[in-house]
Design goal:
nine-stranded mixed β-sheet; seven-stranded mixed β-sheet; 19% strand
Length: 579
């Protein structure tokens, strides 16, 4: 029988192997992001520039995202082009042609100084900024905000336009047009903003330090570089107002910017400099440039898939197919057509009927009920368990292990306490591992894989059957801050295992459809992107091949009911960040 429910499996496969890129004469570009509000836009007049800055800068390219208002269609249109004057206020782009203004910003002298420091460096700038914008949505006014929790009419704001700009820029494989694929290496951030957050209330100004830290963390995450150096342009006070203060709470924001740099718990250099006057060439940009290192960072290697089945029985089929595919993938060379391997065809449909755990019959069950139902199978057939952490309220978070093979597979379920369908499936898989020793698939998995499962990562949420944990935190949005014991436990387990594959198991909306006729989706798969560019590098391509293999196997059982899941990059989620 089928147990229907909102079911999703987010599957992340951590690749322990590196697929070599084809040899070629790649050009490596150091990528710098320039963002903020009007001082980053730039009001300097092009006709007042010195002669040396009025021409194109050879070896420096820029992708300038088209500025857009909050609640508008997501923008980010731009074109890679050699840096020249005209990227100040009034610049626009339709994604095919840039419309240059008669103004300039910090990009000219910043790039110039970078080239002086390293004449051989190839520089790529990504710029997205919008004058008047705040971080805090309470200070957005008519200009917009970068607030990560922005609601608004559509929920789209400056952060979304920034992500679109980065995605569009990084998706271009040959940015200099020489016919050879280029390598884009994130190298630094320059952030010049804060005036609008200083203009309204002291409460908004006092929130600036936390808001700034969260935003910079996510900008770093968008570039998949937690150690990305950042320079903060500190706001200044001209005194040109009736009360002598243009920004009523500027001293609070200035202090917050200094505190962010000196006290922030950051893993990368952060530097503070005065924003200066955007109407003349940036006198501080040379100093900013000197703070950046030129260390080449290698892209993170990862393979990821997402599956979202509609029922627990389908979940079992999917998990066993994944296990079989993992066995196959761990033993087949990258160039082999995986779909032809017999081991990849094993599905194990019988588990749904023969190994059902009777004690877990409904979607709502407690931590105690789960482990009471699993207890008869622990310590049997090579299945073991151990406590890895305690939840906020002191409930044991436990991991179950099976197998002794060289390929390590990590699965975690119910990080959202009300998404239990995968947990139900895992209980049956655990019983299959404990009692199915005579089965060929059981033996294959045992010999080739080491499987580690966390059936209930958020036991306090499960106790209340709620998404968040006991203190109201969404554990799946805690990948960067690691503020919860549940999030820290998962990160520590993943790091200690250095897992080759990881399955992040969730529920989903039962209204999801698949196929040309729009049938209810039984399961959805996805090879997620490694960053906002959503490019198919060798690792993601490997994941796509695996997803296609699984879709073929499941399609025989579920014709027209296998879907592809949305591949939007989320820089706060565990599914995107711990791979």
């Amino acid at each position: 029988m089928l147990r229907c429910g909102r079911t999703r499996i987010e599957l992340l496969l951590f690749a322990a192997f590196l697929l070599a890129e084809p040899a070629g004469a790649q050009t490596t570009f150091d990528v710098y992001y320039l963002g903020g509000q009007s001082n980053m836009d730039g009001f300097g007049k092009v006709d007042e520039l010195p002669e040396a800055l009025r021409t194109q800068q050879s070896g420096v390219l820029i992708f300038h995202g088209n500025p857009a208002a909050d609640d508008s269609t997501i923008a980010g249109q731009g074109v890679w082009a050699e840096l020249r004057p005209g990227h100040g206020i009034g610049f626009s782009s339709d994604g095919s042609v840039n419309d240059y203004s008669q103004r300039f910003g910090v990009e000219l002298t910043f790039a110039q100084r970078l080239r002086e420091l390293d004449p051989e460096a190839r520089i790529a700038l990504i710029k997205y900024s919008r004058g008047g914008t705040s971080i805090d949505s309470a200070a957005a006014g008519r200009f917009g905000s970068w607030d990560l929790d922005y609601g608004g009419q559509s929920g789209i704001n400056q952060y979304d336009h920034f992500l679109a700009t980065v995605r569009n820029a990084m998706a271009v494989e040959d940015i200099d047009g020489d016919g050879v694929r280029d390598q884009l290496v994130p190298a630094g951030i320059v952030w010049m903003q804060g005036e609008s957050d200083a203009a309204f209330t002291p409460e908004i100004a006092h929130r600036y330090q936390d808001n700034l830290k969260e935003l910079i963390d996510l900008i770093r995450a968008a570039f998949r570089a937690d150690d990305l150096p950042v320079v903060i342009g500190r706001i200044s006070e001209s005194g040109q107002d009736e009360d002598g203060k243009v920004w009523d709470h500027g001293e609070i924001v200035r202090a917050a910017q200094a505190a962010f740099v000196t006290r922030g718990t950051m893993t990368a250099p952060a530097t503070l400099t005065s924003a200066g006057d955007s109407r003349r060439p940036c006198s501080k940009c040379g100093a900013i440039a000197e703070h950046y290192s030129y260390t080449r960072r290698h892209p993170h290697v990862r393979v990821a898939l997402i599956l979202r089945p509609h029922s627990e029985t389908i979940m079992r089929h999917g998990l066993l197919l994944l296990s079989a595919a993992a066995v196959c993938l761990s033993s087949v060379a990258a160039s082999t057509a995986l779909a032809q391997e017999p081991c990849c065809k094993l599905i194990g449909e019988y588990v749904a009927d023969e190994y059902r755990v009777a004690g877990i019959a409904e979607r709502r069950f407690t931590h105690a009920e789960l482990w009471e139902a699993l207890d008869p199978f622990l310590g049997r057939g090579g299945v073991s368990s151990r406590e890895i952490a305690l939840s906020v309220q002191g409930r044991a978070i436990r991991a179950v292990s099976f197998g002794s093979g060289p390929t390590r597979v990590l699965l975690w379920s119910q990080m959202h306490g009300d998404e239990s369908t995968a947990t139900m499936a895992l209980t049956d898989i655990i019983r299959f591992f404990a009692e199915g020793s005579g089965d060929p698939l059981n033996a294959l998995i045992r010999d080739r894989l080491t499987v580690i499962m966390v059936p209930m990562l958020n036991p306090d949420g499960a106790e209340r059957f709620q998404r968040r944990n006991a203190v109201g935190v969404d554990v799946n949005r805690d990948a960067r801050r690691l503020a919860t014991p549940e999030g820290r436990a998962l990160k520590a387990l993943r790091d200690s295992l250095d897992a080759d594959f990881g399955f992040n198991l969730h529920d989903q909306d039962a209204r999801t459809t698949a196929g040309e006729e729009g049938k209810q989706a039984a399961i959805a798969l996805l090879a997620p992107p490694t960053d906002t560019s959503r490019a198919y590098g060798p690792v993601r391509e490997r994941a796509r091949r695996l997803a296609a293999l699984m879709a073929t196997g499941l399609g025989e059982i579920l014709p027209e009911r296998v879907a592809k899941y949305d591949d939007t990059f989320n820089p706060r989620a565990f599914g995107d960040m711990i791979q």
